[in-house]
């Protein structure tokens, strides 16, 4: 019989001793975080300050960039502290806070991408009705629904927080829900089922909706004019690349959290668990900043004015 005790902190067992190399790792992670914040803030400022970009597609992009800031801030400052620390522990309240940030970030990322695919569907497949269907109220409602998703995550965290735990060791470099559920002394069936519905449900429902909208877009493109095809390629390419990149990263993390991956090298497991939290916030601003000509031109002009 396992000893049930009140857990006041968790130990993150995925960290290992790196000696003086920890200062190099700290500088790399710090530089990456500053770069991510700078890129996303720059694009948010560009969209907010230019009225020509106050269109649905760019407003949804702005919501996406804000979510990248939210997700990366839920991870990077914590990583920086842990890299320099010799004892890798985290208090229970902070662990649940980070768990909330990580899981809500993932859900809101998929919802943002789904809403953007709906916007592209209306713009390409129903151009004559686009302005009447994509009104200011509808834009505000869609963005609000995306950012209300954390309420769903709150319930999952509540189910996890009431579990009696028989251990406090998490084999990750950050806190996640399933790692804590696996520490439960009693049956955690309800928390497990809800976690699966919240994670896989959000992921697959959003992906099915995105696939449906893109099937419609491709059908229009194949039978449409050259101008229609060019418009679809220029606006949909970064969006599809973003969906693919995030889905690969999220799949890595879901598989790793649900199956035994101890046979894989520890560095590979750490990389796979961090991929969707580190690469996506960097990938999106780079992809959209380089591929959308309006953002690229206005951003270049803004930077040159600041330099002058």
Automatic annotation (TrEMBL):
<keyword id="KW-0472">Membrane</keyword>
<keyword id="KW-0812">Transmembrane</keyword>
<dbReference type="InterPro" id="IPR000725">
    <property type="entry name" value="Olfact_rcpt"/>
</dbReference>
<dbReference type="InterPro" id="IPR000276">
    <property type="entry name" value="GPCR_Rhodpsn"/>
</dbReference>
<dbReference type="GO" id="GO:0004930">
    <property type="term" value="F:G protein-coupled receptor activity"/>
</dbReference>
<protein>
    <recommendedName>
        <fullName>Olfactory receptor</fullName>
    </recommendedName>
</protein>
<keyword id="KW-0297">G-protein coupled receptor</keyword>
<keyword id="KW-1133">Transmembrane helix</keyword>
<keyword id="KW-0807">Transducer</keyword>
<dbReference type="GO" id="GO:0005886">
    <property type="term" value="C:plasma membrane"/>
</dbReference>
<keyword id="KW-0325">Glycoprotein</keyword>
<dbReference type="Pfam" id="PF13853">
    <property type="entry name" value="7tm_4"/>
</dbReference>
<keyword id="KW-0675">Receptor</keyword>
<dbReference type="InterPro" id="IPR052921">
    <property type="entry name" value="GPCR1_Superfamily_Member"/>
</dbReference>
<dbReference type="InterPro" id="IPR017452">
    <property type="entry name" value="GPCR_Rhodpsn_7TM"/>
</dbReference>
<feature type="domain" description="G-protein coupled receptors family 1 profile">
    <location>
        <begin position="39"/>
        <end position="288"/>
    </location>
</feature>
<keyword id="KW-0716">Sensory transduction</keyword>
<keyword id="KW-1015">Disulfide bond</keyword>
<keyword id="KW-1003">Cell membrane</keyword>
<comment type="similarity">
    <text>Belongs to the G-protein coupled receptor 1 family.</text>
</comment>
<dbReference type="GO" id="GO:0004984">
    <property type="term" value="F:olfactory receptor activity"/>
</dbReference>
<dbReference type="GO" id="GO:0005549">
    <property type="term" value="F:odorant binding"/>
</dbReference>
<keyword id="KW-0552">Olfaction</keyword>
């Amino acid at each position: 019989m396992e000893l049930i005790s009140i857990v006041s902190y968790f130990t993150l067992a995925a960290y290992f001793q790196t000696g003086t190399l920890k200062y190099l790792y700290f500088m790399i992670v710090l530089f990456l975080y500053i770069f991510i914040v700078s890129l996303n803030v720059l694009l948010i400022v560009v969209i907010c300050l230019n009225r020509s970009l106050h269109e649905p597609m760019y407003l949804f992009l702005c919501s996406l960039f804000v979510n990248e800031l939210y997700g990366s801030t839920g991870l990077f400052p914590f990583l920086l502290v842990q890299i320099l620390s010799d004892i890798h522990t985290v208090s229970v309240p902070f662990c649940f806070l980070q768990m909330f940030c990580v899981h809500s970030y993932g859900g809101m990322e998929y919802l943002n991408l789904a809403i953007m695919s709906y916007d592209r569907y209306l713009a390409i497949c129903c151009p004559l009705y686009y302005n009447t269907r994509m009104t200011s109220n509808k834009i505000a409602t869609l963005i609000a629904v995306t950012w209300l998703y954390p309420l769903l995550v709150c319930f999952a965290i509540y189910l996890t927080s009431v579990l009696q735990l028989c251990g406090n060791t998490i084999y990750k470099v950050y806190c996640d829900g399933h790692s804590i559920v696996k520490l439960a002394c009693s049956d955690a069936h309800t928390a497990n089922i809800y976690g699966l519905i919240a994670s896989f449900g959000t992921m697959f429902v959003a992906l099915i909706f995105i696939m449906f909208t893109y099937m419609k877009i491709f059908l229009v493109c194949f039978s449409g004019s050259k101008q229609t095809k060019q418009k679809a390629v220029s606006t949909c390419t970064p969006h599809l690349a973003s969906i693919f990149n995030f889905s690969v990263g999220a799949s890595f993390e879901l598989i790793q959290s649900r199956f035994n991956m101890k046979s894989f090298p520890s560095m590979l497991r750490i990389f796979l668990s961090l991929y969707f939290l580190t690469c996506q916030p960097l990938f999106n601003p780079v992809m959209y900043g380089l591929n959308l000509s309006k953002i690229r031109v206005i951003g270049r002009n803004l930077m040159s004015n600041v330099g002058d």
